Amino acid sequence: MAAHGADAERLGSISRVTAERHGAIRVGSPAEMAQVARLFAGFGMHPVGFYDLRDASASSVPVVSTAFRPTDVDELARNPFRVFTSMLVTDDRRFFDAPTQERLEAFVAARELFSPEALALADRSVVEGGLDSDAAERFLALATASFALSTEPIDRAWYDHLEAISAVAADIGGVPATHINHLTPRVLDIDDLYARMSALGVTMIPEIQGPPRWEGPDVLLRQTSFRALAEPRTFREPDGTTASGELRVRFGEVEQRGIALTAAGRDLYDAMTAEADRRLADAPQGTTRVAVAAEVWREHLPRTETGLALAGLGFFRFRVAEPPAGSSTDVGSGATLATLLESGVLVAEPIVYEDFLPRSAAGIFQSNLTDEGSRDDDQLGTPYDLDRLSEVVGIAIADPTDLYGAQQAASLAEAEAALGHPVDTTPVPLAAAAAAQENAPA
């Protein structure tokens, strides 16, 4: 705040950012995922986005995921919380043979993650649009208890069997309950955070995940993590006795959020990421991915928010500026977005990315694995996409791009009504956007 002044809060007020969190949980079956959806619906949190972490990492991470969060803009501003929820894909033969699948599914089916009372209160909250004070307190207590770290003994042989396949699978299907495995605060400057944590002696992930730090606008999501602490757990040995041990399953993560990208922007992001990977493979030893990616960003991405808006790469809310005394907002019915932004008639305010990136999520998971596990890529994986996971969840999973697009369209409609004429928002080529952004107000 001291270093950047008003610009520090451009992508989120300090009051919101300091309250903001996302948690992460893991479940073992479609039935458990459907129960999670019911529970979070009671808090006004809905599934948004589909993430397949199985192919996002070379390590064995056999899960598909969605995130539960408010979808209304005002509600999300009041309650900026998300829970990234992953489901074990037990029938994916790249990871689990038939006997392991059978035992996994039986183990998961025999446990109870959420009490019938908690689910009943969640359903009632949805139907009634909330709960009275006493019921709400009870619901909150039951829901919170569902995500506490279990103290029940863990079958050591079964856990070790799963851990040899995937530490993530062991954390899901080798224990009798689910738990919050990380709770992530948001910061305004993740590079400063990374440096300060490292200076304190905290072992951080080697590189910040997601887009690189560079001179232009922050986009999408940047994340870093630090190693899980060893926590005491009780194990049941093959002979039936119990013994004390340790597991590292709950780790620390921090995030910095940037501007949401359009479908075209995401395509460009994916292309830039692939280009950074290619260049890094040919770079001299010791070259960091962040340095290579920053070069790629400078070559391909507009250097200002205005450039992102004009090229149709980022999502923005548009509003008509208050005209100075004696001036007019009339710039003609054929005005383009570039003209309106350059003249200051329209103001573009960035829409913050509220969701996740599969490669970054897999990288965070991988950073806390003791080894890569095992996978047989000669086998076929179980197909999953947003529609299939929606069937599992029992609720249509929202596409984040559609949500951001609706926000931008609504703001543009209001601006056009205020101006009295439509605005031509046809994306301009990147070269033209780069030229126009030099003249637009900061």
UniProtKB/TrEMBL annotation:
A Pfam family per the record: HGLS
E.C. number: 1.13.11.93
Family: Belongs to the 2-oxoadipate dioxygenase/decarboxylase family.
UniProt KW Iron keyword: yes
Organism from which the protein derives: Microlunatus spumicola
SMART domains registered for this protein in UniProt: DUF1338
Keyword line: Dioxygenase, Iron, Oxidoreductase
Co-factor(s): Fe(2+)
PANTHER family: 2-OXOADIPATE DIOXYGENASE_DECARBOXYLASE, PTHR39479
Protein's name according to its UniProt entry: 2-oxoadipate dioxygenase/decarboxylase
Top-level taxon: Bacteria
Record lineage: Bacteria, Bacillati, Actinomycetota, Actinomycetes, Propionibacteriales
InterPro entries attached to this UniProt entry: HGLS (IPR009770)
